[in-house]
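Batch job 17 of 40 flagged for manual review because the log was empty.
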Amino acid sequence: MEPVLSVRGLAKHFTMHTIDGREVTALRGVDLDVRAGEHVALAGTSGAGKSSLLRCVYRTYVPSAGHVWFRTAGGAVTDLAALPDAAVGDLRGHEIGYVSQFLRAEPRRAVLDIVARAGVGRGMDRAVARDAAAAALRRVGIAENLWAMHATVLSGGQKQRVNLAAGTISPPRLLLLDEPVSALDPANRESVLDMIADLEEAGVAVLSVFHDLDAMERLATRVVVLADGRVAAEGAPGDVLRDELEVAR
């Protein structure tokens, strides 16, 4: 099976203009693949480059060097690192999703509307999207009396669950997850982990960052350990040394 995502020689440097102009390197020639139905979890200590890698794939950051090859649903292969911003925006709307631990919603936008709009952005009919949004919100434990409220009044854990509901409605071809369960209580964490696990069966390619070792071992088909911006180890969760994962948690 051809990869949905192929990262080759990916590097990212930041220039600290507000300090002394020195350069900080976040990624140093990273290579990895993610296939349809595969969940690749990124492990590593703080500063290893995990979130920088996700942001380069999503093009929040423009890579300093290397390629981010993405295979579209139509079979075309395009380098996200070199695409114009407008073309990247089109792919984000339809085929690439990003779920972080923070919900960045428009002011005065109701919870149900946020999730439904994500479905419409991926090609769903508006009425179908609202029904699917309601089902997704129920699954992540957002009570119906909150659906008409503005997302800004929700707690951190509730915002995180709304974010995941929006990210998984009509699931994109590639989904990037950055600490999606960090603010959740045990009961809601379980329902969210179950929802993420279902993405494998739906054929979604998932690239994630977890500091939760249990979630990583439970969900990932493969773990890639980053250290100092490089791939230090990779393999099935059971095959990657336990002490490396303990450091990565």
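Reviewer: the log was empty due to a logging misconfiguration, but the result itself is present. The longest strand covers residues 23-34. Unflagging and moving on to job 18.
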